[in-house]
């Protein structure tokens, strides 16, 4: 994108503010993995430092899970402007005794619009320390409940919750 996605304004609001509002609608508290632990001070929310700043989403995911004070954590990438609190609540109800509930869309698994048990931090940290940087591959080490479209479509019939912004052209979608 050429800019910090967290500050990118979509429909009049920075993406980080949109994401935190979705999380606040689905969760009792919001914790932000902001890379350096200070970058998003303007949100006025508690932040954690990624395991290794600049190492990608897996580093932030592990840091957030390790800092969480609840047994379940809703995880949301900042570049998902249509994230859906109803989908997150549905996923939380599906985790059960597993490490995570992750929706599947036509593009595949969406591990950055998902719900994790804080206990999943151990396996994800082990993957990170072994050199893994892909969240997709790291969750292969976990016991994951895959939530198919027929299960989440009542909460979001369009599936737009999974849309993410990676290139300027994605803003038109």
Structure description:
The protein has helices at 15-26, 57-67, 85-92, 121-129, 135-138, 149-152; strands at 9-10, 13-14, 32-33, 47-48, 72-76, 100-105, 108-109, 113-117, 144-147. With 173 residues, it is an alpha/beta fold. The chain has a single domain (5-165), classed as Spore Coat Polysaccharide Biosynthesis Protein SpsA, Chain A (Alpha-Beta Complex), CATH 3.90.550. The strands form 3 sheets. Strands 5, 6, 7, 8 and 9 form a 5-stranded mixed β-sheet that branches. A two-stranded antiparallel sheet has the order 1-2. A hairpin with a 2-residue loop joins strand 6 and strand 7 (108-109).
Short précis:
This protein has helices at 15-26, 57-67, 85-92, 121-129, 135-138, 149-152, and strands at residues 9-10, 13-14, 32-33, 47-48, 72-76, 100-105, 108-109, 113-117, 144-147.
Task: Give keywords.
173 residues, single chain, 28% helix, five-stranded mixed β-sheet, two-stranded antiparallel sheet, 9 strands
Structural class: alpha/beta
Count of separate DSSP helical elements: 6
The termini sit apart by 15 Å
- Biggest sheet features: 5 strands, mixed
Q: Which CATH class applies here?
A: Alpha Beta
Cα-atom Rg, whole angstroms? 15 Å
What's the CATH architecture? Alpha-Beta Complex
H/E element order: EEHEEHEHEEEHHEH
Structural domain tally? 1
What's the pLDDT, averaged over the residues?
93
**Total number of β-strand segments?**
9
Which spans have pLDDT < 50 for at least 5 consecutive residues? none
The fraction of residues in strands falls at: 15-25%
Helix content: 25-40%
**CATH superfamily annotation:** Spore Coat Polysaccharide Biosynthesis Protein SpsA, Chain A
Quote the CATH topology: Spore Coat Polysaccharide Biosynthesis Protein SpsA, Chain A
Label the overall shape: globular
């Amino acid at each position: 994108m050429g800019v910090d996605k967290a500050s990118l304004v979509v429909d009049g609001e920075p993406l980080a503010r949109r994401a935190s509002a979705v999380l606040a609608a689905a969760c009792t508290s919001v914790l932000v993995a902001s890379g350096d632990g200070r970058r998003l001070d303007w949100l006025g929310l508690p932040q954690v430092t990624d395991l290794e700043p600049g190492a990608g989403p897996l580093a932030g995911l592990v840091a957030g899970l390790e800092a969480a004070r609840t047994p379940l954590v809703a995880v949301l990438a900042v570049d998902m402007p249509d994230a859906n609190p109803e989908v997150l609540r549905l996923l939380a109800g599906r985790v059960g005794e597993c490490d995570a509930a992750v929706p599947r869309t036509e593009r595949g698994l969406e591990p950055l619009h998902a719900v994790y048990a804080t206990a999943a931090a151990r396996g994800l940290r082990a993957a990170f320390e072994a050199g893994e940087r892909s969240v997709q591959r790291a969750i292969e080490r976990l016991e994951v409940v895959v939530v198919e479209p027929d299960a989440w479509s009542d909460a979001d019939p369009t599936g737009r919750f999974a849309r993410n912004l990676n290139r300027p052209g994605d803003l038109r979608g």
